[in-house]
Design goal:
Order of helices and strands: EEEHEHEHHEEEEHHEHH
CATH superfamily of the largest domain: ATPase, nucleotide binding domain
Shape: globular
CATH class of the largest domain: Alpha Beta
Distance between the termini: 53 Å
CATH architecture of the largest domain: 2-Layer Sandwich
Number of domains: 2
Structural class: alpha/beta
Number of helices: 8
Largest sheet: 5 strands, mixed
Oligomer: single chain
C-alpha cells in the first residue's frame, strides 16, 4: 500500500511517500518558498527515486489546516487533482493533530513525568497576535484523544488553556514566546526534541492507519479546516489584530 502525502499548512512544505505504513522517501523545504513550487518539485523527485508513477499510488493524503490559507489550498488541491485524475481515495489530516502525533513520544518522556501526565497543547501561528490551538491527551500506547477541538485564540488570552504544566508545541509558541509573561512561560513545557512544524511523513503515517480502517474520502468530500476568515474578509469586516496585553 502506497500513500503520497502533502503538507504545507505552515512555513515549511513537505512531501512524503509511505509504503506499507513506513515512510520511505521524503523531501522537506528548509526555507519558506512558494509552496506550489516546492511540492510539485518534491513529488517528481520522490517518484523518480522510488521508481514509481502516480498511477501506482493507492491513496493521496493532504494537510487540511488550520494554518496558511494559501498553503492549505496548495496541498489539498494537489491531492484532490491526483485523486480525481487517477480515481484513488484521499485522506485529510489536520495540522494540529499532526503536531500532536509528531511529539507524542515526549508526552511520556522522563523529564516530563513529574510535571504532567498525558496532555499536549498544539499552537500554530494564526497571525494578528493569534494562534490556532487544540489540546490532546496521549495515552501510553499512543492513542490520541481530542480534549479541546481546534479553534483560534488571541495570545493575550492563552492563560485560559493553561490549567497546569503542559507540553506545548508549534510555531505559535515560537512566534510569541518572547512576549509571554514568565509565569505563563513556565507552564508551557519545552523539552529537548520538540518538533514545531507538521510534516508530510507524519501525515502519511496517520493516513496509512485511516486507509487500513477503510475511512478514506473521495476528492469531492474533502474540505479545508478554515477556522478564521481570510485576510481580505477580516479586513472587510473590520477585524484587526489584538494587542499582546497579558494584564489581568
Amino acid at each position: 500500500m502506497k500513500i503520497l502525502a502533502f503538507e504545507s499548512s505552515t512555513k515549511l512544505g513537505s512531501v512524503a511517500l509511505i509504503q506499507n505504513g513506513v515512510g520511505t522517501h521524503k523531501r522537506v523545504s528548509p526555507t519558506q518558498r512558494s509552496h506550489s513550487e516546492v511540492l510539485h518539485q518534491f513529488i517528481f523527485e520522490i517518484l523518480e527515486d522510488a521508481k514509481l508513477d502516480l498511477n501506482q499510488i493507492d491513496c493521496f493524503a493532504a494537510g487540511c489546516g488550520p494554518g496558511s490559507f494559501t498553503g492549505i489550498r496548495v496541498s489539498l488541491n494537489t491531492a484532490k487533482a491526483f485523486s480525481y485524475a487517477f480515481q484513488k481515495p484521499m485522506v485529510t489530516v489536520d495540522s494540529l493533530l499532526n503536531l500532536a502525533k509528531l511529539n507524542q513520544g515526549l508526552v511520556h518522556h522522563q523529564n516530563l513525568s513529574k510535571n504532567l501526565s498525558t496532555k499536549i497543547l498544539c499552537l500554530i501561528n494564526a497571525y494578528k497576535n493569534m494562534s490556532y490551538y487544540a489540546v490532546y491527551d496521549i495515552s501510553p500506547d499512543g492513542q490520541t484523544k481530542v480534549l479541546v477541538e481546534p479553534n483560534v485564540i488571541p495570545m493575550k488570552d492563552i492563560k485560559v488553556l493553561l490549567k497546569g504544566p503542559i507540553l506545548t508545541v508549534g510555531d505559535g509558541f515560537l512566534t510569541y514566546e518572547s512576549f509571554l509573561p514568565a509565569d505563563l512561560r513556565m507552564q508551557m513545557l519545552r523539552p529537548k526534541g520538540i518538533i514545531d512544524e507538521p510534516s508530510a511523513e507524519s501525515l502519511g503515517t496517520i493516513a496509512s492507519e485511516v486507509f487500513n480502517q477503510g475511512l478514506t474520502l473521495d476528492w469531492k468530500s474533502t474540505k479545508p479546516l478554515y477556522i478564521r476568515a481570510s485576510e481580505a474578509e477580516e479586513t472587510k469586516r473590520g477585524i484587526v489584530w489584538s494587542p499582546l496585553d497579558f494584564k489581568e
